[in-house]
Amino acid sequence: MWHTRLGHPNSHVLKLVLTQCNLLPSNTYVTEFCLSCCVGKSRLPSSASQIVYSAPLDLIFIDLWGPSHITSFSGYIYYVAFIDAFSKYTWIYPLKSKAETLSVFQQFKAMAELQFNTKIKSVQPDWGGEYRAFTSFLAINGIEHRLICPHTHHQNGVVERKHRHIVEIGLTLHHASLPLQFWDFALTTAVYLINRLPSAALNFDVPFTILFSKSPDYKFLRTFGCACFPFLRPYASHKLHFRSQECFFWDTQTLTKVINVSLLLAEFTSRLSMADNSLWR
Fold first, then answer.
1. Among 60, 165, 238, 271, which is most exposed with the fewest C-beta within 10 angstroms?
2. Are strands 144-145 and 265-268 parallel, antiparallel or unpaired?
3. pTM metric for this prediction
4. What is the dotted CATH code of the domain comprising 59-212?
């Protein structure tokens, strides 16, 4: 069950989490064959960068993913990823168009600099038209703009590997049978979990721990896509109306957001029962 709660990590990462956090009576048993991993993961080997960064926000890698051939439930077809080179902590923002990239970066910059009490020193975006509007903004704010050559993805390998990791985990989560138009929920959950799992790029340290100087809490996690039953009595139209309906749980972070697939509605509630070992069907 922890294999699915944590977003289908590999066996080595899973053993580390279970051992360090004492989440199971026995830390030797990990998982059996996982169909979701088989359908969601397939990769070629790659080499990681050996450069070490000394502080948060020294360098932010930026890249755009998309367009998705399926428009999401919320109208998104892209996402932009911001990756802290020091901690490998990742933020993603779904986008409806490439034109939103600069304004979203401005939002991210304001949030990150306030939360971590430091300035973004430099950024390395993948080369593309969606980033050319950054030039004057970066110059005004004294941020170094590190350029890479067009069509040389290996020069932005951190982002390329991160995109692959996010989509792989998103696909394994999506195997829970949620309609594909909810892909943005799956990818957002994937990033939340990736930030809280040991990373080979950090010698199996955890991005969350490096950035926030504390360990993540795993005990509240529930399986993405498990069946859940929100308390709907206040919304009932009459006294014989059912007090709940099976929904799809997706918000690992706050445990308050569910999807009513039959009505294509995203609902928010603090009162719900979850069947953690039973996926929504």
1. 238
2. unpaired
3. 0.75
4. 3.30.420.10
